[in-house]
């Protein structure tokens, strides 16, 4: 990570910890107060746009929670009725029967 990215990340964490809205101006003022002059304003605006409307504390708490099928299923359930019905129709098609030893004509203890 570059100095600009680290400084913007730390500034965003400080603002989130204080419960202050994360904006480009606030990030830039924190970075300048820390004495870091090499951060271009594009970095603070990118971080502000990326974190707009998100709870940073919640993001940090859910860093290790694995992705997978749960978020996709939750998104399908929250979708409109037609989209949910289409998602339900696709679900059985995705499941494929795995080949087993019985299909090959021999077993583990034969």
Automatic annotation (TrEMBL):
GO molecular function: protein kinase activator activity; ribonucleoprotein complex binding; structural constituent of ribosome
Any Gene Ontology CC annotation: cytosolic large ribosomal subunit
Composition bias type Acidic residues, residue spans: 86-104
Superkingdom of the source species: Eukaryota
Key words, A-Z: Ribonucleoprotein, Ribosomal protein
Similarity annotation: Belongs to the eukaryotic ribosomal protein P1/P2 family.
Quaternary organization: P1 and P2 exist as dimers at the large ribosomal subunit.
HAMAP family: Ribosomal_L12_arch
PANTHER family xref list: 60S ACIDIC RIBOSOMAL PROTEIN P1 (PTHR45696), LARGE RIBOSOMAL SUBUNIT PROTEIN P1 (PTHR45696:SF10)
Name of protein: Large ribosomal subunit protein P1
Species: Aaosphaeria arxii CBS 175.79
Lineage, uppermost ranks: Eukaryota, Fungi, Dikarya, Ascomycota, Pezizomycotina
């Amino acid at each position: 990570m570059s100095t600009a990215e680290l400084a913007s990340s730390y500034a965003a964490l400080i603002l989130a910890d204080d419960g202050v809205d994360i904006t480009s101006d606030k990030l830039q003022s924190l970075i300048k107060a820390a004495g870091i002059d090499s951060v271009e304003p594009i970095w603070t605006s990118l971080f502000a746009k990326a974190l707009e409307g998100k709870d940073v504390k919640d993001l940090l708490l859910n860093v290790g929670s694995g992705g997978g099928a749960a978020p996709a299923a939750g998104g399908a359930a929250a979708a409109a009725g037609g989209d949910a019905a289409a998602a339900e129709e696709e679900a059985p098609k995705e499941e494929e029967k795995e080949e087993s030893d019985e299909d090959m004509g021999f077993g583990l203890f034969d």
